[in-house]
Amino acid sequence: MEEHVGQVWDRFITKIANQGYPEAAVTLDQVKTPLGVFYRALGGDSALRITATTATLHKARRSWLHKVAGTGKKVELAWQDEICLYLPAQLDLFPDAQLNRDLYFWLAAMAGTPVPAQTHRNLNWIVDNQQRTSKTLQKYRGLHQRYQRLVRAFIALRPDPVKLKPEIAAQEQAIQQALIDPGSITELPEARFAPEPVPLWLHPNPPHNGGLSSSNETKDRNASKGETRQAEQRRRQAERVDKPDEQGANLGVRHEADLFSFAEFCKMDRSTEEEDDLDQAEGIANDIDKMSVTQDNTTVASRIKFDLDLPSEEEDDIPLNEGILYPEWDYKKNIMLRDYCQIIPMMSRKAVDCELPVHLQKPARRLRRQFESLAARPQWIRGQYEGDKLDLDAYLDFRGSASSNGSANSGDPRLYYQKRPLVRDMACLLLADLSLSTDAWVNDKQQVVDVIRDSVHLFAESLHASGDQFAIHGFSSRRRQHVRFNCIKDFHESYNAKIRGRIADISPGFYTRMGAAIRHATDLLGKQSAQKKLLLLLTDGKPNDLDRYEGRHGVEDTRKAILEARNQGLIPFCITIDEEANQYLPYLFGRQGYTFIRQAEQLPKRLPQLYMTLTGKLLGS
Amino acid sequence: MSTVSQLSQTEELPFYEPQGDEVELFMHAYEHKLPVLIKGPTGCGKTRFISYMADKLGLPLYTVACHDDLSASDLVGRHLIGDGATVWSDGPLTRAVREGGICYLDEVVEARKDTTVVIHPLTDDRRILPIDRTGETLHAPDNFMLVVSYNPGYQNLLKGMKPSTRQRFLSMSFDYLLPEAEVEVLLNETSIEKAMAERLVVLANTLRELKDQDLEEGASTRLLVYTATLISTGFDPVKACRAGMIEPLSDDPDTVIGLMELVQAAFGSSEQE
């Protein structure tokens, strides 16, 4: 009972104290895609993702109601770093939904407008934001009206300086002045409290992050355990702290200035948490302002992924040769790191010849028929000695030349159209991502890797029927020295029970060093002599590996590898089942260069169809 | 499909804003009877450049817009049924070779492969056009010039130009104009105000930055001229941009919304307060 009353009270007081207008709320998800286009159009970094921010502490004075309700300590403000643009997950500041929506676009505009380097680091918050504001307004005059509207509505919500204590009033007045006339305030008057947060501006002291994209990791890790926690996308203020010395300060709790919050050094082994524990951890994480993750010599990921040792040599697949070295792109230094990754081509050891799994036989039959018709599709060939119908053009030429020469039938009497099968001059390499994340479950019965296996089965059946040249390879990686490239079917091998056995033996491996794998695939495919060469990448997530190959580094390297493939005349195309693909795949493959398949279990059937439409387009028929 | 144009001498040269030394290069190429390949994105002024040069040199211009069904006989000519007999009819290429002038094959990679058979002998020092259907071999006169263009942006996805063909041409690459020059173009082509023209050009360059990620291709100068035309005759700028520059570039609703926000930011809101 007590608990119940407590909950009701909590809800009640939180509601009263909440100053927002939930009925006019606009969520980030509603505007994310257009916002991304807008942000990039204004000059925002095109490799950045847009993501929801966590609330961070502000040190302003809280109203008594907030104090009673225990809310209002934190506020969600916008900021950006080199990986993401962080925006509040929901805006309900204004009573009018249009204004809340405008605020999103205003924040994106502020963040997107390029400012001279360094200004934002060295200048103080108020000057920096005024500068950004004027710069943005100067560049986009159409925003004036909207900005004015926002400011008017916003100032109406601010405390009235007249009713405040003098020192706070001076501060408040300065902020309002700065909002109305950006550039007019050069310094924020001192006061005991920090000023009320200004949601129209960027974060005063954005949480720094050492370039580690922990949200991605968390996601991958979760995914690899077979649970996708979409709900928890908020970003923790993950900051790196030095690992406490053995002998020295092993003090677990650090007190922050505000007594109501605590930042804790929590050494959680998240990989062993049970499902409900994770829920709890989420709750805890929401309360902690900074979640610290230690970094010692081994990377965090590798400590958690303790089970990922390579199999012993007798168990492991057969390495086909010593390994081939490939470069990797370092976007920070803007250079190609030579001989940086080692591709190790492998062949499955345990594979036994087999037939197509029973549940695939029916769809395979249908697909085979479909693709056979593709291979045998006839085309009319003109100017033949004999054929099914008259080539009128040739006939006229023939008559014309006959009459102009004066002698009858001097020309070549090739006057017929003939129907002949069309030869498709096409080579395709299917590159399947076999990283551990494919271990995740699609539904109650299937794992991602099962879906990939089935897809590859049907793909092979279909292409075999079509007569196009094709090869199938899988890849996974464990750091740069060990990028496994599993040969399933090479171009020169014919499709038979042995290949089916290798497909059946597909199993999830390690991580996803996409760049190196793409480079090797590019090499293999480039050696084929076909007119059109299609490089199909089948994946379930973004590039990542144990070392720094994650977040932006991985994305940039993969992009480079794809550009190289394009320059060689290959056509790279990506098929993904990652729901977040829209965030990064356009940057890698271009808008037209990938397809997202929403229901993973549809993949086996969709893949051959996709191949058909794709090649149809490529071969211009 | 093909058009012949020859302006009378009294008419003025069409307006053309040079990007670099292309006019000079073209003159030299003409003098030395060398074929020219022009590449560049859609609507950046390739066709305009050719018609300008044709006028400047006083040559008739034979323009052929290539498409995927265009065959060699469409270029060279064919027998037609005449009055009880068949009559040979020259194609645009043959006519240009016979009478002199510039033959311009626009988007040449679109054409069928057999067209290269007739292009190749014209592009080396032989400069001949064998017409096997009539048994003729035409020698190109000094004032004949072959110009082809293509858009490298589409090349990888669909069709490429064979290196053996590409290596037969002097090549020049076109890009979008520099902002100041593009403003000049708008002022010349339409009666738009300068300030508005400048804002349009800024917007267009912003859109061009989005190529390959959000858009397949950036806004062309041609689209800019369309938009400026609408605006200069009193059409609402935001709506003009939507029709002239945003909708033509993308079919994705979210992208359109995002880009319209950009237009709003650049031109102010169309709805009144």
UniProtKB/TrEMBL annotation, chain A:
Transmembrane domains' residue ranges: none
InterPro entries on file: NorD/CobT, VWF_A, vWFA_dom_sf
Annotated stretches, region: Disordered: 197-253
SMART domains: VWA
Pfam families found in the cross-reference section: VWA
Domain VWFA: 425-614
Biased composition (Basic and acidic residues): 217-246
Name listed for the protein in its UniProt record: VWA domain-containing protein
Species this protein is from: Amphritea balenae
From TrEMBL, chain B:
Signal sequence residues: none
Residues covered by the ATPase dynein-related AAA domain: 35-169
Molecular function in Gene Ontology: ATP binding; ATP hydrolysis activity
Domain CbbQ/NirQ/NorQ C-terminal: 182-265
The keyword Transmembrane appears for this protein: no
Family: Belongs to the CbbQ/NirQ/NorQ/GpvN family.
Name of this protein: CbbQ/NirQ/NorQ/GpvN family protein
Native species: Amphritea balenae
